[in-house]
Amino acid sequence: VAENTGIIVSDIEQNLDGASYSYKKKKKLKMIYPHDTLVLICGTDMFNTLLSWKYPERIFAAAEIGGIFRAGGDFQKMCELKEKYEQCGAIVNIYEAHIPDISSTNVRYALKNGLDVSDILDKKVLDYIKANKSNAAAYAPIVERCREMGIKPTEVTDLDLAQELLSMIEE
């Protein structure tokens, strides 16, 4: 990832007032890129909970939803949720991803119980997070965010990107 010049690190979240919610980020991105189609890429765990997010209808209005289906997931449930989200005004596509079957829920569990996650996160990234975030549960959203970005968490070796990922965690 560090060598990929097509990836841009954004500071949008740092410049938003108040709590960092997805609807605020999507609104700001839509203002900056009014003619572009924004797509919120969601792993299975995030996709399953979109209606519980703050103002999901605003997210649906600002961005299309790309649900990532991975091996071991419940494809039927994703299709049912796709239909439900579309009834709320969302444009939804489901994509099959050939990525490791790593759930942020499982990562949270592993961290909470003191299990090793070094095979999931690059050492530099893990060291950075440990040094800057005392709550071990913070690692799991980074894994999920990497999936959304279409990269493997173990491929994130750039510390600036790690910092951006860390700052993107919803509170």
How are the secondary structure elements laid out?
Layout: H1 22-32, E1 39-42, H2 44-47, H3 56-62, E2 64-70, H4 75-87, E3 92-97, H5 104-112, H6 123-132, H7 139-148, H8 159-167
Parallel strand pairs: 1-2, 2-3
Helix pairs in contact: 1-3, 5-7, 6-8
Summary, kept brief:
This protein has 171 residues and is mainly α. The protein is built from 8 helices and 3 strands. The chain has a 3-stranded parallel β-sheet, with helices on both faces.
What key phrases describe this protein's structure?
10% strand, 3 strands, 3-stranded parallel beta sheet, 171 residues, globular, mainly alpha
Detailed description of the structure:
With 171 residues, the protein is mainly α. 43% of the residues lie in helices and 10% in strands. Helix 4 links the parallel strand 2 and strand 3. The mean pLDDT is 76.
Please bin the fraction of helical residues.
40-55%
What is the count of β-strands?
3
The N- and C-terminal alpha carbons lie at a distance of: 26 Å
pLDDT under 50 segments (min length 5)?
none
Percent strand: 5-15%
Mean pLDDT: 76
Rg from alpha-carbon coordinates: 16 Å
Largest sheet: 3 strands, parallel
The 3D shape can be described as globular
**How would you write the strand order of the largest sheet?**
1-2-3
Q: Which structural class matches the secondary elements?
A: mainly alpha
Count of helices? Answer: 8
Order of helices and strands: HEHHEHEHHHH
